[in-house]
From TrEMBL:
GO terms for molecular function: ATP binding; ATP hydrolysis activity; zinc ion binding. Keywords: ATP-binding, Coiled coil, DNA damage, DNA repair, Hydrolase, Metal-binding, Nucleotide-binding, Zinc. Belongs to the SMC family. RAD50 subfamily. The gene is rad50. It comes from Haloferax elongans ATCC BAA-1513. This is DNA double-strand break repair Rad50 ATPase. The keyword Coiled coil applies. Residues 677-731 form a coiled coil. Residues 404-506 form the Zinc-hook domain. Residues 365-379 have a biased composition (Acidic residues). Zn(2+) binds at C454, C457.
Length: 893
């Protein structure tokens, strides 16, 4: 197995690192803390995950980062493999977010699964890996200080000898299991044997014979008694049938007698009924006579010729015709009365409607009249207002007769005069300023002159060439003062002119508003005049309309009265016709009475005839009954003779005797015998079952004996197997111990080469002893630090070789990894270490990874890898230094 590539991201000090690993010796170098050990740890972690860590999972993630990723590629047994792991930190916990092993045949996911797969590929778990292939920094004493038992476990584990122990234990378990079964089967067999003995002691066959002969005796007794009993039953039955026969005859006699009684009673009954019928017939005859009288009286009330159905029908037809006529007339009269009443009502309604409309018109006329009155009053007021406004306007117009402008131009005049006033004021102000300046200049000139200087230029002067200047300035002042005065008076006159124009303007605007009011008043006057006229006209028209409507209403009322009168006349006709109908109904009632009397009479006659017939029938029936009665009496005489009392007595005593015999046999003798028989039968059944059980037990004994023999031989085999596994392991271990001891001695000689020690002994229990030349034994712990380091290296390399040779290339071992192996070594021993590395290579170790600063080891490298840490970012990087540059790289170091 060889690593081919490792890639890291945020693993411990690494930010982003990638490295191809090749065959041969790779030396990783760099200063302390640059990240060399971390690179090896990364390989180990990639293979085994958290189990490969001393610390916790979050330690592998670069402090301050959330994710770390590690990818390791390797070849193994000719296949390419790749492991990807990602660790994620969240909060203060880290978890494996991804873990995948891609192999040539399958892809495995999940940290546990990947770890198991790696352990089975390499045939070593993480512990075995550090014990064999990966010599960690500072772990010099681990194997030296271990107890022999720990060493034994470790080396047995690496050599898979532990499996033989497992098999031996399993064989042991199997042996114990077989022993358990064997013991229990044996005790069952003993139990069965003692049961057989007990059964054989019981003499089962002779007991069976005795019981069977007793049973046959009892059975024949039972048969005899049952025979006797059956005979008694026959006797009993014969007696019983004699008794039954007599009983039946007696019953029949009783029946005949009661039939005779019944017949007699019925005959008497029917005779009574016949008497009653005769009486009833007589009553009905009388009833018919009475009805005849009634019919005659009823007919006389009608105009019937005779009391017959035909005469009745004819009379009814006449009545029906008459009724039809009356009803027709009646319906006509009713319709007409209804029509007239309706007309009268309508006319009355119409008259009322017209009257109310006339009333409305009159009321409306009143309202119009009142409105006209109001308008007329308004009109008076408005005319007064009009006159007032007109006189005000006239007085304003008078004002304008003397004015410089006409009404309408006063506003313009005012504006014009105001402009003139302000212009004049401006001129005045300018002139005043000029005057002030002139006065100042005059004063200056006078001061200069008084100081004897030129008033013009201020230079001292002789004579008075500039006196003229002062006179000019005085004249200017005077003229300006005169201008001021005239302007002031002009301002005054302008101001009063403005005042006058203002008054005119005010009068003008007042006149405008008066004119507006005047035109408004005129409009309203016109409006009121129109209202007065139109409302008065309207009132007149409405009154005329009202008069017309009232006349119309009067007419309608008269027409209504006429129709009401005519309706009353027709209603009288209706009443008369209705009383005619009533009279007809009376006559119909008379006819009904005659008819019902005729019906009664017919019914009475029918009744009488029916009763007569019934009376006849009864007489016939009674005659028949009397004949039957005679028959029954004859039969009774016969039956009385047939009953024989002596025979009955004899049968009775025979029956009694038979009954008592049967009772005794059935209730005492037979049950006893049967019980005895059942008891015997069940005893025989018991003995037979015992015999069967005995033969079963004998069969079971055979089976058990066979099974016990088989278990015994199985037990012997399993015991053999158990001891074979134990022997085999001891033998193999002994062989391995011998080889390991040889290899250890070879390696130790190679790396130490000191004359003080003669050899190292590894005993069967993996105890280690070092012998000095003089034969004194030393424990490895007693060696010096450097010696222990060399001893440890020798032991590791020996184990590695043992495995590599023992496994015979079937599963090539992982690379040999040494972290700082030179720490305790002096220069001479470093050279020997180089020899050891070369020797290992010669012996077929394909890939060796060494972390070291040592120049000599660096020199022995096929490949040199340099690890550096950026001092500012504190992140490590890794770089391969190719062989040609090796020397120069070393020179810099
Ligand atoms: N989780 C982490 N995040 C960042 N840096 C870390 C982390 N864990 C360790 N380191 C840093 O990595 C460095 C340790 O690296 P390592 O032990 O590989 O150094 P080394 O080159 O083997 O040193 P030496 O020669 O002293 O053995 C230390 O500087 C440490 O601060
Ligand atoms: Zn280190």
């Amino acid at each position: 197995m060889r690593f081919t590539h490792i890639a890291l991201q945020n693993f411990k000090p690494y930010e982003d690192a990638e490295l191809d690993l090749r065959d041969g010796v790779t030396v990783i170098h760099g200063v302390n803390g640059s990240g060399k050990s971390s690179l090896l740890e990364a390989c180990f972690f990639a293979l085994y995950g958290s189990k490969a860590l001393d610390g916790t999972l979050e330690d592998v993630v670069t402090t301050g980062e959330d994710d770390a990723e590690i990818t390791l590629e390797f070849v193994h047994a000719g296949g390419q493999y790749r492991i990807d792991r990602r660790v994620r930190v969240s909060g203060d916990r880290a978890t494996t977010a991804k873990c995948v092993l891609e192999g040539p045949d399958e892809t495995i996911e999940g940290a546990r699964n990947v770890r198991k797969a790696v352990a089975s590929l390499l045939r070593m778990d993480n512990e075995a890996f550090v014990n064999c292939a990966y010599v960690q920094q500072g772990e010099v004493n681990k194997l030296i200080n271990a107890t022999p038992a720990q060493r034994q476990d470790m080396i047995d584990g690496l050599l898979q000898l532990g499996k033989l122990e497992t098999y031996r234990e399993r064989a042991g378990d199997a042996r114990l299991g077989v022993e358990d079964v064997l013991t229990s089967k044996r005790s069952v067999l003993e139990d069965v044997e003692s049961q057989i003995e007990a059964k054989e002691d019981e003499n089962l066959h002779s007991r069976l014979n005795a019981l069977e002969s007793e049973l046959s005796e009892v059975t024949s007794k039972i048969e005899r008694y049952e025979d006797q009993r059956d005979k008694a039953r026959q006797t009993l039955e014969a007696a019983q049938s004699t008794l039954d026969e007599h009983e039946e005859k007696r019953e029949r006699l009783a029946e005949v007698e009661s039939a005779i009684d019944e017949l007699k009673a019925k005959i008497a009954d029917d005779e009574t009924t016949r008497d009653r019928l005769t009486e009833r017939i007589r009553e009905l005859d009388e009833n018919v006579d009475e009805l005849d009288d009634d019919i005659e009286a009823a007919v006389s009330k009608t105009d019937l010729d005779e009391a017959s159905d035909d005469a009745l029908a004819a009379a009814r037809e006449t009545l029906d015709d008459r009724e039809a006529e009356i009803r027709e007339e009646l319906s006509e009269a009713r319709t007409k009365a209804q029509a007239l009443t309706t007309q009268a009502d309508r006319l009355k309604e119409r008259a009322e409607d017209l009257e109310s409309r006339a009333k409305e018109k009159r009321e409306s006329a009143e309202e119009d009249e009142a409105a006209a009155g109001d308008a007329a009053a308004d009109l008076d007021e408005l005319r007064e207002t009009q006159a007032d406004i007109e006189s005000s306007l006239a007085s304003i117009d008078e004002t304008f007769e003397d004015a410089p402008v006409d009404r309408g131009d006063a506003a313009d005049l005012l504006a014009e005069r105001r402009d003139t006033l302000s212009e004049t004021r401006e001129s005045l102000a300018e002139t005043e300023t000029e005057l002030k300046n002139a006065r100042e200049r005059l004063a200056e000139a006078r001061e200069l002159r008084d100081a004897g200087k030129c008033p013009e230029c201020g230079q001292p002067v002789d004579g008075s060439p500039h006196v003229d200047a002062i006179a000019e300035r005085e004249a200017a002042v005077e003229s300006l003062e005169a201008n001021c005065e005239s302007l002031e008076s002009k301002v005054e006159s302008c101001r009063s002119a403005v005042e006058a124009a203002k008054q005119l303007e005010e009068a003008e605007s007042r006149a405008a508003s008066l004119e507006d009011r005047l035109s408004l008043a005129e409009e309203r006057i016109a409006d009121r005049e129109e209202t007065v006229e139109s409302r008065r006209d309207a009132a007149e028209t409405k009154r005329e309309e009202a008069t017309e409507l009232e006349a119309d209403a009067e007419e309608k009322r008269e027409a209504a009265a006429t129709q009401a009168d005519r309706a009353a006349t027709v209603k009288e006709t209706v009443t008369a016709l209705e009383s005619d109908l009533e009279a007809l109904s009376d006559r119909r009632d008379d006819l009904d009475r005659v008819e019902s009397l005729l019906d009664d009479r017919e019914a009475a006659i029918d009744d009488r005839d029916r009763l007569r017939e019934k009376r006849e029938t009864l007489a016939e029936v009674n005659d028949e009954r009397r004949e039957h009665l005679q028959d029954r009496r004859d039969r009774r005489a016969e039956l009385r003779e047939a009953v024989d009392e002596d025979a009955v007595e004899d049968a009775r005593s025979r029956k009694q005797k038979a009954e008592s015999y049967i009772g005794q046999v059935e209730s005492d003798v037979l049950p006893d015998l049967r019980e005895k028989r059942d008891d015997l039968q069940s005893k025989i059944g018991g003995v037979k079952a015992d015999l069967e059980r005995l033969s079963e037990l004998r069969e079971r004994r055979e089976e058990l004996a066979e099974r016990v023999d088989a278990l015994q031989s199985l037990h012997d085999e399993v015991t053999d197997l158990e001891s074979t596994y134990g022997d085999l392991r001891a033998e193999l271990r002994q062989r391995n111990v011998e080889i390991l001891e040889r290899m250890l001695n070879e390696t130790f000689d190679l790396v130490y080469g000191n004359d003080a020690y003669s050899r190292i002994r590894l005993d069967g229990e993996y105890g280690l002893t070092v012998f000095q030349k003089d034969g004194t034994a030393l424990q490895p712990e007693q060696l010096s630090g450097g010696e222990r380091a060399l001893f440890n290296l020798s032991l590791r390399c020996a184990i590695y070789r043992l495995l590599a040779e023992g496994i015979d290339g079937a599963a090539p071992l992982p690379p040999l990894i040494l972290d700082e192996p030179t720490v305790f070594l002096d220069d001479g021993h470093v050279s020997r270490l180089v020899d050891l590395v070369e020797e290992m290579q010669r012996r077929g170790v394909k890939q060796i990874l060494i972390v070291s600063h040592d120049d000599e080891l660096v020199g022995a490298a096929d490949d040199l890898v340099r690890v550096e840490k950026n001092p500012t970012t504190n992140r490590s990087s890794v770089e391969r230094t190719d062989a040609p540059d090796l020397q120069s790289a070393l020179a810099d170091d």
